[in-house]
């Protein structure tokens, strides 16, 4: 799944399959400007920063169990969000610091390092990298990913795929080749 925020006409957190299908709203109320998003892949929670409402909130993947972890002026300048074990990590663009914050109650805020400028932060952990023996976008015998001539996107599961074309091309009637 792909999770994303939007704060155009109506602010929301949404999810969809990697090919853009099955778009679903996870949260669409009591938010104004969700700008950073992070996933707890193990426990299936979505965290986000709303810079306008100056809050950090969390819900489960279905939009339930919503609660606020932090609220106030200290949230206004947070950029990016990453989860690792009991903490979330973010960048404070006001004092140029990477912060570590207890993700269960918003306390234990510690500045870990200073950076001149950053907009995103990521934490990589082996156990969150799903291991799949085979998937629908593996190269076929002719070297084309998933049998697609340009782009292969996983669909509703790792066993299903959708082919797409680069800009300027259209998908052929076979659903795999681009013209």
From TrEMBL:
GO CC, any one term: plasma membrane
InterPro entries with a match to the protein in the record: 6-blade_b-propeller_TolB-like, Cueball_EGF_LRP_Nidogen, LDLR_classB_rpt
Alphabetized GO MF terms: Wnt receptor activity; Wnt-protein binding
LDL-receptor class B repeat ranges per the UniProt record: 1-43, 44-87
BP GO annotations: canonical Wnt signaling pathway
Protein name: LRP1B protein
